[in-house]
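Hi P.,

Sorry for the delay on this. The queue was packed all week, but I finally got your sequence through. Input first:
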Amino acid sequence: MKSFKKLNPMRKIIFLLSLFLLSVSGIKAQEILTLDRAFQIAETSSPDLQQSLLNLERFQKNLEAQRAALKSRFSLDVAPIGFSRNRRFDNRVSQWYTNENFETNALFRVVQPILLTDGSVSLTNQFGWQSSYSDASDIESKVFYNNLYLNFNQPLFTYNRQRLELKELELNFENANLGYVMQRLNMERNVTQFFYNVYMTQMNLNIAREELSNTQKSYEIIKNKVDAGLAAMEELYQAELNLATSKSSLQDREVAFENAKDQLKLYLGMNLYTDFSILADVSANPVPVDLDKAIETGLESRMELRQREIDIESSQFDLIRTKSLNEFRGDVNLRLGISGDNRNLNQIFDAPTNSPSVGISFNIPLFDWGEKKARIAAQEAAIESQKLNYTDEQNQIIIGIRQAFRNLQNQLNQIAIAEQSQTNAELTYEINQERYENGDLTGMDLNLYQTQLSERKIAYAQALINYKIELLNLKIQSLFDFENNEPIIPADLYLKQNN
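Then the structure:
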């Protein structure tokens, strides 16, 4: 400080200007976080939302894979070298002989599933060259060969497994999309709660600073009075205790503020070393709400109801599978083929051989000791349970909307009461502060009025925040934005996927 006093006036100005610029740059480095900005950060960085996106991607890729599996599949099996030497016994002549065989071939296959009938059509072509030698006849055979087949397979008297599996994957993908939308709405609720929690701790910190300032002034007043012999020493002791308590309270609220910011950063997926301050609008703007409209839109649009419907459909699919246990089933296999072989490659089909085949088989269950009947009854009970869950979900939605509506109306009353209480506490504190300055009130009594004022300010701010949160809760429960008087269409929240 002494060295600063020795500086000439121009250097003093430069020094103070530098301090100002440094302080301004420090302020700019701190991010101002609004609720809308918090939503934007959460949509791209929230761990919970990222988990939901990964789950959605998993079901989408499974559905894409199943749809791709319904298209023609091409495969090529190549066996470039095959050699064997075996010692065998010929029963016709009661003689042992040695057989050597060398072969190379390739098998090309095209398989086309038939979604409509659950059958399949395949085209196979095997081409190769074979050399075979047997010491029994001392003859070596070398030949090119080609086998071309068209196969058709069709199950009979059973359910379409391909169609059922595809439908299940479509429902799983839709369910995952619904889960993502619900996670986004839940994210909006959680971000709002974390954000306003930081706001409240920030407000508590500001109130603690204001309380410390008032306590400091009161301490200076009583200290001057004691020094002048106008007040007892006990009043100074009480003022010192009040000042120490205010400083401790300020430190506690600083810790609570930093902890609340860390929790918000963690949920948003922000860098934990990023600093910010909260900018929030908590003014009370009563929004007219129509309870009947809220219930109507909630029952029409809530994703949980569609999820219960998906559960019912999935249970019905399980019932179809259960009924297929020990079922009467048939299979038809048709094959048309042409084969040819020759020592010369260009003469393979000079004398072709037609190779048609027809096969029909049946699986006929005889007696299962009541297994199938019992499993069907169990699955039917599961379906009825899912239907009850659907009805219960409807009732829960109605109750949730009613509770949110009642809480919203109650919060308006609480805001009015809290606002009046804060006004009364401010007037009371001003009156008693004047009494304290005049020596008509002790420091302990003034501290009680200071505490009362702080509590009323916090209660009023909390009432405003509670109204905001309840309004958001009603929006999520009913899927209707009463602030903007427009419905929330779940499909608008879906990710635009290329199915």
